[in-house]
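Here we describe the complex-level prediction in full. Unlike the single-chain runs in Section 2.1, the two entities below were treated as one system.
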Amino acid sequence: MPTERGYLEPEGLEKTYRFQQDSIVQEVDILSSRKAFDMILPLLGPYTIGYTKNGRYMLVGGRKGHLAMMDMLNMELIKEFQVRETVRDVAFLHNEQLFAVAQKKYAYIYDRDGKEIHCIKEHGKSLKLQFLEKHFLLASINSFGQLHYQDISTGEMVANIRTGLGRTDVMRVNPYNAVIGLGHAGGKVTMWKPTCVKPLVTMLCHHGPVTAIAFDRSGHLMATAGVDRKIKLWDLRKYEVINSYAARAESLDFSQKGLLACSNGSQLEIFRDTGGQDYKIYMKHRMVKGYQVGTVLFRPYEDILGIGHSMGLSSILVPGSGEPNFDTFVENPIETSKQRREKEVQSLLSKLQPETIMLNPNMIATVRPSRKKEKKTKKEIEDEVEDVVEAAKNTEMKKKTKGRSKASKRAKKREEEVLKAKRQLMEQYKESDGRPEKKQRVSDEVELPKALQRFAKSRQ
Amino acid sequence: MIILVADTDNIYLTFCSQQKVFRNYDPALRTQEKAVEYTRALNAAKLEKIFAKPFIGAMDGHIDAISCMAKNPNYLKAIFSGSMDGDIRLWDIAARKTVCQFPGHQGAVRGLATSTDGDLLVSCGVDCTVRMWKVPMLKMVDTNDAIGDASQPSAIYTWKHAFWGVDHQWDGNLFATVGAQVDVWDQNRSEPVSSFEWGKDTVLSVRFNPGEPDVLITSASDRSITLYDLRMSSPARKLIMKTRCNSICWNPREPMNFTAANEDTNCYSFDARKLDEARVVHKGHVSAVMDIDYSPTGREFVTGSYDRTIRIFQYNGDHSREIYHTKRMQRVFCVKYTYDGTYLVSGSDDTNLRLWKSKASEQLGVLLPRERRKQEYLDAVKERYKHLPEVKRIVRHRHLPKPIYKAANLRRTIIEAENRKEERRRAHRAPGSMPEQPFRKRRIIKEIE
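The structure predicted for the assembly as a whole is:
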């Protein structure tokens, strides 16, 4: 491998979280020290940031309508413009050529040059945007708690799910299986996929509203933070708490190498896994007292944490957070335009259908597990019928007197018993003639009295 | 404290125009791999169907139905064909033109065979003659001035009965003709060296074993398959079936196995050492199978049938992998795989030889290494997911001409009805009184030493 992972190692009695950013920046080489910066933009509101998947381009959106896209490799500003409307969230689409912005009333898609390409009215007043790259789906949660999935390549609205759990602006996509995790005001965390109207998983995580959620890249760790001043680490295979920390967090993010960043007011804490899912504090960063940190995002393939706060944006060095070696054919930070176009075409050709989103993505092409209730084989059914018939034949007939127990009448009665027993069984094991069974649809209307039938909930 | 920040800037300095490729095979970098592979398999299956154009061209020239063909391992481009009016031609497959003609036979040419070194062509026909021809292979190099040349036979041997087939020994000087009996000839003698006979019926086809040059197999009109060994004075073994075999071919890579093309629309693969049971029954055709030929890889074979279709089977597959048909192609009497395994040649009733691709969606010619790698990847990913219903539906789909489709449905109904009756008979008898016989044994009557 060409590069090795960065590290911050204490000597002797030193603790890693005591090191300030300035001392770190002084010790590293000049190119890395230039990557840590502070941009003070006091006028245009709290900033949200977004990175492209290869970590090269950064998109910055200020609440008061300031949008800017920067090439972080050359540290140049590509485009900066004002939309003159509230901007709530920004997200890159599949590459830096297009990005989506959740504005005051609708969601918009802009070009790299700042041209407005689409105004998507169906999403409504969206609060958070997330892009699923492999499926080309733009997911958004709006102020009514509706989850929209839109296919960016065809423009089709794939799903419009009413979560029924109220307004929430805590949304994250799980990079392992492309499932959307929402955190709700009741302390619940739900997971959604576009083809299902009910959540895949509902977990009660906190004793109050959930304030932030983050998923680890490996797919089996989830971090949630709530108003009850707890940050909990969940194992997503058993849906159990691994660890719980007493801390507040307004935003959480996992890095490519598993570092967890939590922001709280103007303070930042970064936790690192010290083996066995035991997260200990690794670094701390304190900003100027009045700055309220809104978003924290690790930059992919770099040891940098991007911070969007109320007075602009900063980026700090976090040694050991990014994946040092990239794969040219997966995400390439140094792509030429030819490579970018080729990648776009290839990813469109192997665009995944929304039906392939599932909790366990490795289940595709595996054998379906057998049904719990085993159907009885023909022989077994026949044996059972025989036994029942035998039993019926041997039942004791009541002895009737006064000439009522004629042999023919007794025989007829016995036959009737046998037929009755057989009929019961045959209905149970009715052989299907190859056609799928007709599901008996139970309608609600039948049970309600006539006056109340108009209130019956129609099945979705 | 010791600090290192991952120093990725070295990579960013590129001095040359060619981009360096960096690889990191960590699976954590690639999410939902199976879904991506499945989507690629589906797209690859669809693309395969789009590019499936197996028919290359027809070779036109004969004026009567083509009865037999011969090929030679030394010259890939050459194929010989003989027709029902006695006309034998040597074709250049690449140019799809006749290089040379060999006139002489008075009636139908029933068999053609080339010697292993490629210099000699042996033909036999219903006019009771065996003709040996010298093959002008140098003319193949420059086909422009060699079209339609006629050649003289180097020898004509007349014998007592009409001939039905001929085959030349591998790496030897002997060739065998069959008709009323099996005659073994030497190239230089005008009379057969030895004759074999078992029963009084016509022997229809003969094949020498590629591995054992002294073993040959024949099929006769008394529904039998007979094995002969030239070192013994009498035939070795005989297998009688319920219907007649039209043609037999040895597997070139497993010379103890052979496959017989039968009148009852199936092909039976046998192990020559154990003839009491077929190894595989290849079903698919709806009418008698006329001819069979193995690919040089020994992994698949092609059959031509009376129902105007050609099917390609895997050597151990019970259903065909591929079916080729054309409106203009009538009853197929002979099929051959070329010696590089890429093409098939079929000779049929409508006086044409047709050239087909063995893999219908294959891109012919020289492929760039990147193209080849992509194709290999797509084949592998299709192979991995071919059992999933969506992919399977596309991969399996073949358009059949309506008469074949209807005939196949009819056959299926008949077979199902027979099976059902058989089951009921078995159910109403004492258990064990009616033994089940595997299909591989069902069509064999007995084996005789």
